[in-house]
Amino acid sequence: xxxxxxxxxxxxxxxxxxxxxxxxxxxxxxxxxxxxxxxxxxxxxxxxxxxxxxxxxxxxxxxxxxxxxxxxxxxxxxxxxxxxxx
Length: 86
What we know:
86 residues, five-stranded antiparallel beta sheet
C-alpha cells in the first residue's frame, strides 16, 4: 500500500513501449532511459508528454513509478496521489 501524502510530481512513469511504436512515443513526449532500458514520460510536463494518453496506449504490462527507491505499479498509488489524471 502507498502511504505518500502529496502527489509525487516530476516522477518518471515507466512504460513498456514496443520498438515499433518508438516514433509515436517520441511524438507524445516519451523519452528513453538508457540506464533502465525503458521508455518513460514525466507526470508533470504540463501537457508536453501527454501522460494520460500514453498510459492508455501502453498499459500492458502496467506502467510504474519509482518513488523513494521503490517500484510502484500505478494501481498501487491512489488516484488522488498520482499527480495526474488518467
